[in-house]
Amino acid sequence: MSGPPLALTLGDPAGVGPEIVAKAWTALRESGPAFVVVGDAQALASAPGAAPVRAVHSSDEATRIFASALPVLDLPLKAPVVAGQPSAAAAPAIIRWIETAVGLALSRTVSGVVTAPIAKAPLYEAGFKFPGHTEFLGELTTQAAFDGARGPVMMLTAADLRVTLVTVHEPIARVPAALSVEKIVTAGLVTAQALRRDFGIAAPRIAVAGLNPHAGESGGIGREEIEIVDPAVRALKDLGVDARGPYPSDSLFPAEMRAGYDAALCMFHDQALIPVKMLDFWGGVNVTLGLPIVRTSPDHGTAFDIAGRGIARPDSLIAAIRLAADIAGRRA
Q1: Is the bond preceding 33 in cis, omega lying within 30 degrees of 0?
Q2: Given pLDDT bands bounded at 50, 70 and 90, which one contains residue 180?
Q3: 123, 145, 178, 262: which has the fewest C-beta neighbours closer than 10 Å?
Q4: Please, what's the b/e burial string for 96-113 (b: 16 or more CB within 10 A of its CB; e: otherwise)?
Q5: Domains, the chain, ranges and CATH?
Q6: What is the average pLDDT value for the chain, to the nearest integer?
Q7: Residue 63 CB partners (closer than 8 Å, separation 6+)
Q8: What is the largest CA-CA distance in the chain?
Q9: Residue 1 pLDDT greater than 60, yes or no
Q10: Could you give the CA distance from residue 319 to residue 332 in angstroms, rounded to a whole number?
Q11: Per-residue pLDDT tens for 79-124?
C-alpha cells in the first residue's frame, strides 16, 4: 500500500465502534485501503475478536504495518469504559479524536477521515454544542481554503441511490419553517459539485423532492412546493445545475426513477434515510459534502444494546472506508 492512509476515529468506545473497527481491519488488512485509528488503544485491544493493536506515531508508520497490525494513534481515555454503558466522562476524548483526525486531514497527513458512530446525549452532557458529527466537522474546517460551494451537506449512499438533505436533525414540526430557497439552492450546488468532483459524474442530474404528499397537489396539500421548492429548482437551473422537480417523494425512489437521476435532494431526514435503508440496510454510507477534507461514516449508530457481544456487523464501516478512499483518489 502506498500514499497516506485514512484516519478512522473510534467513536463512542462504549458502543460497537471498537468491535467494527477491528473487524474492518481484519477484512481490509491485505487489500486496503489502509487506515490509522485515532482513539484509545486499550479499548481496541479489548474489543470482541480484537485485532493485534500497535501504537504508531506517524501515518507512514501506519501504512507500513497495516498488513500485520491495526495501527492506532493512541490518545487514551481518562478512565476505562464499559461496553453498552455510555458516559459523559468519555466525551472529551471522543471530541479530541475527531479534532485530531480533522487536523491530520487538513495537513494532508492522511487522505481523509472516516468516523465511527458517536452518541449525542453523552456529548451534550459534557457541553458539546453541535447537533452531530456533520455540523462539528463544518465548524472545524470553516477556516480552511476550499474551491467551490461550501457545506456541510449530508449525503447517504446505498446500492445505486444517493440522497442529500436540506434539513438534517430537525423535528418534523419545524421542517417547513427551516426550509428556504437559499438552503435548497446551496444544498443543490454542493451536491452537483460533489457529484462531479468526488463521484466522477461529468453532467450530474439532481431530482428534487417535494415536502408535502403528492408534492403539494398544486397547492391543495401545502404551498411549500409553490413558494419555496419550485423557485429553488428554477434558481438551480439558472445556475447551470440540471435540477428537476419537485417530485412526490413516494414515487421518487423505485428503480425506474433512480435510473433517471444521479442524486435525489430531499427536504428532511426520514424522507432520505428510509429509502437508503430499505435498499441496503447494512451497507449504507454517510458522506459529508462541501468540505475541504474527505469524510465518510457508517450509516448506523452506536448500538449500545449489542456492544461487547461480538455480533456487530462491520459492513457499513467497510463500505465507508472504501468510499472515502475512492473519493480521496479522485480529489488527488
Answers
A1: yes
A2: very high
A3: 145
A4: ebbebbbbbbbeebbbbb
A5: 1-146+299-332 (3.40.718.10), 148-290 (3.40.718.10)
A6: 95
A7: 1, 2, 3, 4, 5, 34
A8: 63
A9: no
A10: 20
A11: 889 999 999 999 999 999 999 999 999 999 999 999 999 999 999 9
